[in-house]
Amino acid sequence: MKTPRISPETRLVLEKFVERPTDWRYGYELSRVTGLKSGTLYPILMRLENYTLLEARWVATEDGVPPRHTYRLTPNGLEYARTHLAEARPPFMVRQPAFCSG
Amino acid sequence: MRQMLETHLRQAATVLLESAIRIAPPDTRDWGRAMRGEINHVEGPWAAIMWAIGGASVLAKHALASLFIPGRGGQGITPDAGLFAKSISLRKAALVTGGACVLAALLFFAAPPFRQAFRVALKPYQIASGNIQPGFEALAKRAEIRHDPEGLALCAVRLQSPRESARLAEEAVRLDPNLLWVYAVVGMRNPGLSEIGQWVEKLERWDPQNALFHLITAESIEQAHFRRGVWSPPTKEQERAWQSAMLGAFQSPRFDDYLNRVAELNRRVVPRYGFYDPFEVQSREQIDLPVSAFENSERFAKLRLHSGADLEARGDRKGGRDEYWTVARFGQLIDSQGRADFEHWAGTTLQAMAYRQLQASSQKGGNHAEAALFGYLAAKFDPVKGEHAGFPGESAFGLDTSRRNAAVVEISGLMILLFFGLVVVATSILIAGSRRGARPAARSAKPVATMVVLTSAVGLLFSSVTLYLTYRPYWYIFRTAVLNGGRSQTRDLGFFLNDTKTLPGVSPRVYLWLDSLLYSGSPTFLFYFWTGVTLLGLIGLVLILLRHFLGHPPSGGVQRSPRVP
After folding, report:
1. Which burial class, exposed, middle or buried, applies to B292 when counting CB atoms under 10 A from its CB (0-12, 13-18, 19+)?
2. In this predicted model, what pLDDT tens digit does every residue of B161-172 receive, in sequence order?
3. For A33, phi and psi rounded to 5 degrees?
4. Inter-chain touch A47–B83, beta carbons under 8 Å
5. pLDDT digits (tens, 9 = 90+) for B462-489
6. Model pLDDT, residue B564
7. Residues 61-80 of A with CB under 8 A from B
């Protein structure tokens, strides 16, 4: 079976979900903590939800303001994230200063 | 004020996302609403705009994907294509579509009209070498190797260099004496050649009643007065010889410019050598009756008309009218037996001059009916107001259409080059980004490169279709002219080809001015100009690419900004 590929951006999103697995997170909040723009973040969320790794719900807000979508990992998603995040650290997480002699 | 601007910007962001939601596939719209729901919470109005642009691009991509793969349900991923590989199937669909467009565009090159159209489209960039007849020069060499008299004859007739034309004409006639008429066509164009006297003698023996040879002799005498840019008045003997030659022309019963033979030569030689360059093959002005022949005829006609008026004034009405009729008959001869537009115009102009004199003569003689007839004929053949007026501006398509079509063809050709270049560059980036161990910058450039491939490929196909459809009518005219000797609409082709020699929107005067400013009339200026522009463009592109690929540190070397997706 073909091994699914995970992009560095997806890994970053999964990491943020794993940090607080029970919390519902807003899209803009995720964008701020991951540094991903909406054009990158939402396709990842859409794919995670499509594979039932992520659940979403609408949250009503004050009158006149549109409701907000919130997200958190499903139990499957949490297991998947923990397994895959433990397998390999993404290259950009290895913090090795440039021009370091020691 | 600032708050108002902020409100407007947020409204604009909302409108943008709502518009994107409208075009998004139904199962993606909830995600669009989710992005819209966040706009009010994004800090800063410009950040809200950026948020909306990002969200709208996601929805637009899904809308585009649903067009290519209608049944895919709006999701960017299929399970077996790599679970978290970003937009893999969308990228594949875009690349397949782009590849199909490029292939379809390349298939156009299999069509001869398209190949010819492409060469015509790039003409403004090719005038540069200074050699305006490279095709005929190459053809002459091939014809010499093959010892092909017809090939040599065609080159002799068309090449602009007088000495080379004379040499090829001599060689053609040596190989095939039936091509003797080539001397007449070459001699008419180059009356200053030293061989003219010898050639005319042979031609007069071969075709004794043709007025053309007398016109060649007369022009040859005229040329003798004009040496190295200095005009010297003719001697009495020269003037007498010139008048004698012109009288011979005016009294000749036949006029044959041999252009029908040239057309026949075209029909046989051009396909034999596959020489389908419309610029060189269709340059008919090179072989038409030169202006000098008309100037000689007009000058001699005026002499005859004055002589007729003098005779009439002295009471010799018959002698006077005979002079007028001599001019009128010569005009009829040129008009009825010539093949070129200029010849018809010259013939009718001479007739109009003669009929005006005949009208005045009949009026004086009291024959009003005859005067009315000559008046009608003079008006009919008037070069300014008559039926044949307007030379050489008439055209079936119209001058504006020719100019517009030329611009469309030139722009389409340029766009084909541009889009093809973009496809090549973007494909190279995609290949570089897909290799194992590719730089992160190359990997992150893949989505943009995919979009560039797709849009450039579509542009390439569109430009190719436009070029083909716009040029196709001219290709038919060219084929008809070359293979059947047909002259209908060749004027349209001529106008069109003339317009394609300069860039759209740039007046030929600008070319002449630039040329004279820097190179004193040398056509090489254009070559250096466009080479410089192209080189600067290429250097700029290379610098951008270098900055893109080398400007980012390797992923393992320093911390990578997480903001780069």
Report:
1. middle
2. 889 999 999 999
3. -75, -25
4. yes
5. 999 999 999 998 888 888 877 776 666 6
6. 32
7. 65-69
Q: Which of A5, A46, A97 sits opposite B31 (nearest CB)?
A: A46
Q: Are B7 and B37 in contact (CB under 8 A)?
A: no
Looking at residue B259, its pLDDT comes to 84
> If we measure between CA atoms, which residue out of B367, B562, B34 comes closest to residue A34?
B562
Smallest CA–CA distance from B443 into chain A, residue? A7
Mutate to test the interface with B, among A14, A42, A49, A95 (most CBs of B within 10 A): A42
Residue indicated by tokens 């740039």: B506
Contact A27 B57 (CB under 8 A): no
**Token pair for A24:** 């519902």
Q: Which residue of A has its CA nearest to B43?
A: A28
Task: Provide the token pair at A83.
Answer: 């397994």
Helix crossing, B399-434 with B88-107: angle to 10°? 140
Alpha helices, H only, A35-74: 38-50
Distances (CA, A) of B561 to A33, A34, B140, B493, B501: 13, 10, 66, 60, 52
Q: What is the pLDDT of residues B10-29, one digit of tens each?
A: 889 999 999 889 888 888 89
- For chain A, domains (ranges, CATH) are 8-90 (1.10.10.10)
For A60, name the nearest residue in chain B, comparing CA atoms only. Answer: B37
Which stretches of chain A score pLDDT less than 70? Answer: 1-5, 88-102
Task: Choose among B493, B376, B539: nearest CA to B120.
Answer: B493
Residues in chain B: 565
Whether B85 sits inside 8 A of A5 (CB atoms) is yes
Name which of A98, A86, A46, A11 is nearest B77 in CA terms.
Answer: A46
Give how far B48 is from chain A: nearest CA, Å.
10
Cα–Cα distance measured from residue B266 to residue B258, given in angstroms and rounded to the nearest whole number: 12
What pLDDT sits at residue B66? 74
- Is B523 in contact with B515 (CB distance < 8 Å)? yes
For residue B112, the one-letter residue type is: P
Q: Which residue has the tokens 């909302």?
A: B14
DSSP state letter for B502: S
Whether A84 has its CB under 8 Å from any CB of chain B: the answer is no
The total of other beta-carbon atoms located within 10 Å of residue B549's CB is 15
Q: What is the ipTM of this complex?
A: 0.84
First to last CA, chain B: 35
Domain boundaries, chain B: 2-75, 133-370
Q: Which residue of A has its CA nearest to B87?
A: A43
Handedness of CA B88, B91, B97, B99 (dihedral sign): negative
Which tokens belong to B532? 């410089």
Chain A hits for B34, Cβ within 8 Å: 27, 42, 56, 68-69
Residues 6+ apart with CB under 8 A from B14: B36, B39, B52
Assess A102–B contact: CB distance below 8 Å, yes or no.
Answer: no
The residues of chain B scoring below 50 in pLDDT are 73-83, 85, 393, 520-523, 553-565
Tally DSSP H helices, then E strands, for chain B.
Answer: 24, 2
**A23-52, pLDDT tens digit by residue?**
999 999 999 999 999 999 999 999 899 888
- Between the alpha carbon of residue B252 and those of residues B12, B181, B277, B329, B331, the distances in Å are 85, 17, 38, 10, 12
Distances (CA, A) of B163 to B158, B160, B166: 12, 9, 5
d(CA B365, CA B348): 25
Report how far residue B510's alpha carbon sits from residue B504's, in angstroms, rounded to the nearest whole number: 12
pLDDT in tens, B348-399: 899 999 999 999 999 988 888 999 999 999 888 887 766 665 555 455 666 7
Answer whether B565 sits within 8 Å of A27, measured CB to CB. Answer: no
Residue found by looking up tokens 């995040």 in the block: A85
